[in-house]
Amino acid sequence: MKLTDLIGTSLLYTAKELKWYMEKNTISELSGSGQMPLLVTIREERGISQKDLAEKLKKDKTTIAKAIKRMESAGYIERRRGEIDKRVYKLYLTPKGEEVYPKVVEYLGEIEAKLDKAFTQNEKEQFLSFLEKVRNTITED
Q1: Is 79 helix (H, G, I), strand (E, B) or coil?
Q2: Known CDD domains for this protein (predicted)?
């Protein structure tokens, strides 16, 4: 059996291809280190803490901190101290981040439209069900 015949390997290759496609066709400053999912999550969950963001995206705190620092330096997000717990940083998009967000959403919609052409509704439902099963299996303790 070849490695490319394995489900896990195929998923990794597919994820890599999708990431490459997204990075070459979107805002270059957001293409590194998974910054696009950070921007989307921070926009959709305004005031999320760095800790909660790391947990939600299943990334270690150091990786999230570095990505946040890059995005903050680029002017896309800002960190604010929590009002109750001053040790906690809450994350928000800046006006520049808010300006970019619709472009990211539009781009993700284009990818979805492209995939819609490849699958019937039934196939999409099955595929999403299979992916959920993979995620649940991998995250089982």
Answers
A1: strand
A2: HTH_ARSR
Which residues share a beta bridge with 90? 49, 80
Rg (CA), the chain: 17
Six-digit token string for 35: 């910054």
Q: Which residues contact 78 (CB under 8 A, 6 or more apart)?
A: 72, 91, 92, 93, 94
Spatial separation of the C-alpha atoms in residues 72 and 30, rounded to whole Å: 11
User: Would you say domain 8-139 falls under CATH 1.20.120.290?
Assistant: no
Distance of CA 115 to the CA centre of its chain: 18
41 contacts 57 by C-beta, under 8 angstroms: yes
pTM across the whole model: 0.75
User: Which tens digit of pLDDT belongs to each residue from 94-115?
Assistant: 999 999 898 888 888 888 898 8
pLDDT attached to residue 103: 84
